[in-house]
Amino acid sequence: MLVLVAPGQGAQAPGFLTPWLELPGAADRVAAWSDAIGLDLAHYGTQAGADEIRDTAVAQPLLVAAGLLSAAALGDISPGAVAGHSVGEITAAAFAGVLDDTAALTLVRKRGLAMADAATVTATGMSALLGGDPEVSVAHLEKLGLTAANVNGAGQIVAAGTLEQLAALSEDKPEGVRKVVALKVAGAFHTRHMAPAVDALAKAAADLTPADPRIPYVSNKDGQTVATGAEILQRLVGQVANPVRWDRCMETFKELGVTALLEVCPGGTLTGLAKRALPGVKTLALKTPDDLDAARELISAVPDSAAGAAGANA
User: What is the CATH number of domain 124-182?
Assistant: First the structure.
């Protein structure tokens, strides 16, 4: 079974959209999306610097657009399940047919703006903990006033809180943690610091009419598959202020019988986690269009994945 996944904030890099815009029809598609949401996606994906695309209000729609564009380039495929990490959940909702591309980008644009506003209240951020025992690390974070905002599995937890708390973490790592790495994000996402964004996102979601998923959709909240579009949308709203449980998502992939995992652009983070947590599962990350042939080969090797709904909205 093939699982199609979409990365979250921090995966972006300057110029990463450039080669994708050279594909037939891609520039026109991105221009139409840009007009729909009032943000020049092509500029930010090709010319903007690291600080500009670190802005939450820019990074989130840029990531969703990249995911949709790269998935569309694969053609008509049928994964056995879809999921996304954090903002990647909106990309996955489009893959599953819950939202069309324009609705997904409209929602993520409002999500990014609301979370950026919430991040201005207090200087906050996020840092990844590499190694260590999860239970020990979580207890240590709580002692420092931090939140385990992402429990990613494969020995990785992402802490979130104020910059002062994160500085204290760098000086006082949990037992067994090899390294603390600051992430390229502009706030303490998936924590109480994002509570103001929940109301704004709920208002944005109220304007949408979600469809039920055509493909099993695995939720960050608890790793469970969600059967209705209404519940998926409700979870997307609440998730901005609650932890991401990617570890449980991967456990569900295993229960569903995953044999291959494909991560859309800008891929790498989630395939890295899968390599450690899902031994024996074939993985591939879409970084540039040069990866498309290998991705199609991977897809063709998985029964019943060569034709279906993913990318149908693109």
Answer: 3.30.70.250
**Regions in the chain scoring below 70 on pLDDT:** 306-314
- CA dist 55 and 58 (Å) reads 5
**The CA-based dihedral angle spanning residues 215, 79, 84, 48, taken in that order and rounded to the nearest 10 degrees:** -120
- Please state which of the four CATH numbers 3.40.366.10, 3.90.740.10, 3.30.70.1130, 3.40.50.620 is assigned to the domain occupying 2-119+191-300: 3.40.366.10
Residues 6+ apart with CB under 8 A from 219: 83, 89, 225, 226, 232, 235, 249
pLDDT of residue 102: 97
| Tokens found for residue 182 | 């600051």
pLDDT at 92: 98
| Residue 257 one-letter amino acid | G
Residue 151 one-letter amino acid: V
**For position 147, what pLDDT does the model report?**
96
Tokens of 112: 């990014």
Residues noted as catalytic: 86, 190
pLDDT at 313: 43
Pairing mode, strands 217-218 and 147-153:
unpaired
Q: What are the pLDDT digits (tens) for 12-44?
A: 999 999 999 999 999 999 999 999 999 999 999
Distance CA 146, CA 160 (A): 6
Burial 249-271 (b: 16+ CB within 10 A, else e): bbbbbeeeebbbbbbbbbbebbb
The pLDDT, as a whole number, for residue 314 is 36
Give the Cα separation of 88 and 43 in Å (integer).
21
The 10s digit of each residue's pLDDT in 130-162 is: 989 989 999 999 999 999 999 998 888 999 999
What's at 127, amino acid-wise? S
Closest Cα to residue 42, out of 16, 24, 68, 11?
16
